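Weekly sync, protein design subgroup
Attendees: M.S., D.O., the rotation student, P.L. (late)

Item 1: inverse folding check
M.S. brought a backbone from last month's batch and wanted to see whether the design step gives back something sensible before we order anything. D.O. pointed out we never logged the input encoding, so this time it goes straight into the notes. Structure tokens as presented (130 positions):
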């Protein structure tokens, strides 16, 4: 499962990297559905974890073709990218490889739309990490 998760390191703080990711995704035409602050959630229950946020976003131009092939693709959409600080203080942008995530669906992983999703995720995380 770990090989299904793609990680991009950054020298930015979690908040700064997440802000950059959100802005980059919006510029690319994505709809931002939610931004989840896991560390803030932990604080609400008296626990503490390093900075950790999740961005949930999508674009029907990418997601709809996958769901036309197999409606269960909707289980894995919209796309998500996590920005988190690890135990050594390194900040990462991480996401699941859509080809791996959707490999058990009917031919979705063989569709050109999956390569587009992979390209979008790689481009967005790379830009946000710089």
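Designed sequence read out in the meeting:
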């Amino acid at each position: 499962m770990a090989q299904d998760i793609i990680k991009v390191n950054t020298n930015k703080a979690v908040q700064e990297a997440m802000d950059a990711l959100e802005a980059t995704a919006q510029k690319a035409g994505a709809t931002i559905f939610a931004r989840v602050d896991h560390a803030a959630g932990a604080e609400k229950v008296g626990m503490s974890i390093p900075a950790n946020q999740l961005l949930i976003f999508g674009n029907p131009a990418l997601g709809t073709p996958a769901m036309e092939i197999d409606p269960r693709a909707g289980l894995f959409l919209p796309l998500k990218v996590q920005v988190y600080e690890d135990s050594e203080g390194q900040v990462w942008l991480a996401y699941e490889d859509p080809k791996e995530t959707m490999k058990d669906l009917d031919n979705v992983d063989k569709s050109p739309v999956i390569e587009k999703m992979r390209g979008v995720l790689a481009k967005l995380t790379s830009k946000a990490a710089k």
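Discussion: The chain is about 40% helix and 25% strand. The chain has a mean pLDDT of 94.
Action: P.L. to compare against the previous round before Friday.
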